[in-house]
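User: I'm curious what two different proteins look like when written out as structure tokens. Can you demonstrate?

Assistant: Sure. I'll show them one after the other, since each token string lines up with its own sequence. Here's the first protein:
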Amino acid sequence: MSALPLPVPLDNQHQEESQGEEGGMEMTKKPKYIRRPVRQRKRESIYEINIVVQPPATARSGAKLYPPITALLQIRDSYSNEEIPSNGQLTSIWAIVSAVDKDNQHRPVLMGTLLDSAHPFYDDSDGAKAEEGASALPSKYTLGSYLTFPDIFFTETGDFKIRIMLMKIGSDTTLEGASMLKDVFSHTVHIGDGAHSNEISDEEKSVLQFLQGRGIPAETQDIKADACVPDLKGSLL
């Protein structure tokens, strides 16, 4: 009975099968990689709001606050983080102010025009500056816009902060469907019987000069306690 052939080890069997006619080894082919399309990140807007003019440190009850609290709105591209012109979005960007106590609880003691839309510092529709007063502003204001509240006043004495809440209003242009974007708080304002007092920085002076060019009054005025206030139902306060 003839002997059975010895089993060939797997490694040797693979080597024999991969040998060519001339005994050479064939080069192993590299696997093909499929290039998948890069998914583009959705571009969105990032909204930043900062107070550039603080209200007075002290004020009288029933008197308009001067300087008027004013905020700078800047919009950045979420992909590049670069600031972009805000003019194309300003029709839907608004802000509302309210008063909060030391515990950041809402207090209905602030009256006047509590709602404002965003306004560009520079009007680039014709490449010109919005106002001559803008020439004194720092460069960070070039693409930004402002929200200001020149005729608000407190109806009660005490210590309060002013909250500015930035909102985006939908196509129905009502507060009912508005979405909150950001909010920011002022320093504490003491409301009593004394006169207004506040230290104004050089940058704040530049912004106030610009606002005066836009017709924002430069002096505080006593106003009547029965001054009208807007209907803020559904304002997300």
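Here's a second, unrelated protein for contrast:
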Amino acid sequence: MPRLSNSLLRRAYHIDPLLPLLLRPCRDLPSARNELRWLREHVSSTPNPNRPHGSNPTPNHLRQLCLERARGKPLQYILGTQPFGALDILCRRGVLIPRPETEAYTALLAAALTRATPPSNLRILDLCTGTGCIALLLHALLAPHIPHLSIRGIDVSPAAVTLARRNLAWNTRHGYLRATAARQVRFAYGDVLTETPPVDGEWDVLVANPPYISPAGFDADTERSVRNYEPKLALVPPPPPPLGGVRERFGDGGLDGAGDTFYVPLDRLARKGGAKIMVVEVVGSEQAVRVVRGIYGVGGGYWDGCEVWHDGWDGRRADENSADGKDGGGGWGVRHLGAGHGRAVVCWRGQGREWLHGME
């Protein structure tokens, strides 16, 4: 990473003495000014018995937060929240921070499910739920159109399950979610890798943002703030078992064989629950192709179709806005939609095709 120029640091200091601290993580002046404004607003809104209501933030408190940010602490952990669609997601250390790329494909999924004639009943299983952001945003977007929703979020981390429940209560209390969310959304502990999460019956849609970064990729490709502050458990899966079906269906699984561990158990759970749609997040087009191969190619026989949603895709299926027909799925004619990084592998069967594609 290039060093910040002295002229930029001097310019920032003349605007505000705290800005040079924020330039370290932000790298440009507009972003640093935005973060300083948000931190000031945060300090101003934080109750302090020693500071009169409406007075300026305590300089020492604000400087301390800027120092934490300069050391690489994610802004979301400092402010305590992250916008996700129209929701306000509580963020706490030990639980992965929601990403805008996850928000984008979640909104695309909801838009697809409501574009034509949405089903009157829909059961959604959100595995590796983390903060609960996917489950909650799906409820916020689907509830106005689908009266009978049942959404279950599962995570192996007790801290994540606790935070997801807090997010359900927080967003319902503040009016970001309909009151029906309190009875239609549930969060529980479960281990996807044992394939025995506490979910019974059938599910129409399975969605998951699993750990998908290999240990080597975690060390080489992630930002310092991610390595130092966010939970590795939510980012890096354990190595696949020798006879667990992962290497047989996915090949080497990435840099060191660990990146694809979750996708076979997720596929099995989708089939076990009779899912009509499965949406799983991936990191980049190479992993997307491996997942397509393992789920739709080598592991075929259940899914009728599969496609890859890339970052930047806006949901339109016109040829000029997609890579329709591009064979990036290992010879299975899988469509790649959008031109950015591969972000989600989407599979469907039976009625799921109608829900996703309408009369296309």
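A detail about the second structure: The chain has 15 helices and ten strands.
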